[in-house]
Amino acid sequence: MASPVPYPRFLPCGDAALIVEFGNAVDKALNDKVLALDQRLAAAPPDGMVETVPTFRSLMVHLDPLVTDPATVEAHIAGLLGDLAGSAAPGPIWRVPVCYEGDLAPDLEDVARATGTSATEVVALHSGALFQIYMLGFLPGFPYLGGLPDTLYLPRRTNPRTRVPAGSVAIAQSLSAIYPVVSPGGWHLIGNTPIRLFDSGRDDPALFASGDRIRFVPVEAAEFARIADAVAGGDFVVEKETV
Amino acid sequence: MAMLKIIDPGLMTTVQDFGRPGFQSLGVPVSGAVDRDVLVLANMLVGNSANTGALELRYMGVTVEAVGGAVLLALAGTAAPATLTLPGGAQEPVPGWRSVLLPEGARLKLGGFPDSATAYLAVKGGFDIAPVMESASTYAASGVGGHEGRALVAGDLLDVLGEAGDAVPHGFDRVPDLRTDRAIRVVLGPQADAFTADAVTRFLGAEWSVTKDADRMGLRLDGPALAHADGFNIISDGITSGSVQVPGTGRPIILLVDRQTTGGYPKIATVISADLAALGRKRPGDRIRFEAVSAAEAVAIRRDHEAWLVHLAGGIGPVRADGSIDLDALYSEELITALVDVHDH
Questions:
Q1: Selected residue of B36, B262, B293 to mutate for chain A interface (largest A Cβ count, 10 A)
Q2: What average pLDDT score do residues B310-317 get?
Q3: Per-residue pLDDT tens for A5-22?
Q4: Is 2.40.50.140 the CATH number for A93-241?
Q5: In CATH, what number does A9-78 get?
Q6: From edge to edge, which strands make up the β-sheet containing A9-12?
Q7: What's the number of CA atoms in the CB half-sphere (13 Å) around residue B288?
Q8: Element (H or E) spanning A109, and its range?
Q9: What is the ipTM of this complex?
Q10: Are A54 and B25 inside 8 Å of each other by CB?
Q11: Which of B261, B303, B342 to probe the A interface (max A CBs under 10 A)?
């Protein structure tokens, strides 16, 4: 292979976007740099910037080529790259209720078997972790969550499901996620949350943003049903922890 | 208020404007017109601002009827003629690239149109559609925006905001040459280095054909396999319209307006913004060649492209009694408004 890549680096994406890449791994330190740059750009956007899309280890910046050009935006960003590590303002911690039982957790036993643990331990590990939303993507409001305990690392399912239920709480590789709507999917389903992650009719359509943090709170089936009713009636508010 | 009733919805007819940028960080695709240039021209034919939502017709035309009043509408994107049927049953052909007054009870039918994958039907004043996330565009996969979040079906009624009044139909002095046949320009990257040097050479040298997997999400191409240098999975990163991703099959997919916001296949190149609309016209079986330019060249080409669009719009004028176009008539301030609007987006 060639010599090591110097990071951060700029990747060309035509005339209407560019990518700032911080490394080649899914980890919190890299994602924190992405979020820190995103926050700096939100505070000091260059002329012609349309929007930004944070991902695991890079930030995509969309721009209007009738107003600016990639070289000008790149020069602006280059001035914002100093001392990014550790500078991202931490996001809120959301307490997301999850039922890890029965039909709502179809892969829980398989996950326990494959990881050499028990269902109780899987639930304890998953609900004991503090996750960070590394990015939203795949579907509107779909959060990719970093912070899964190493014990729960598993490859994706060999046979993806054609229909993963809305609210499914899932794990695969080093990540966890929540399916906002019914969709195909290859992750292991270990629980379900009754909350609505995305509603295009809301002023803020997505409940969460990249950089927000999530703690899963186990609830029993009866409590799950009560919360689901409250969500349907529009009077359930997802709690935030006071930090 | 006049309404447009859908008698025959065609194949995939949706309401589209310039889409909803600004929500991609939440995983929401931009959507919008897959052929933005022709949407702009359709809107100009009826004096709308460029970003007004219109019906996007994919591969097949539609039959519509004016209900509750007259509607001034325009068809753009195809030279195929439509048929106007008046309430009494009299029929007359309507050439492409024209606006036409549809009296109450009259129907307009456009059948197949072989010269593009996409055409637009714009109505004066636009449709009364509540914006979702700041846009009237339909993202059918998630049921967002447009008319009930979906493609139109027979029987749908769309409220029309504009009064047709005694509006004079407008047309182009000649069928606009959309220059669709030339090479599609790309900037190499963001992950050109994820491919062998030979693969990059092949990508730029080959003639590609558009497969039947050609929709608003993207165009899957057929041609020589492109070899990845080091596997075909990358850590998911951002995607833009025109991103050319290459999955394990080695065959490229050009991502279009309904694409996801992020993805995990290496992207060998990015189609420049000036050439995106031409991709929206590609049909299965059409051939594509790529040509590499620099990002700076791509910006210059885009700015020339907007000037060209303005020049094309300069060929719009009222239709005379003999069917010719009166370019001497000063075409109202709406056109100027529309042109200004192009540059705001």
A1: B262
A2: 89
A3: 789 999 999 999 999 999
A4: no
A5: 3.30.1360.40
A6: A9-12, A17-21, A58-63, A49-54
A7: 31
A8: helix A108-114
A9: 0.95
A10: yes
A11: B261
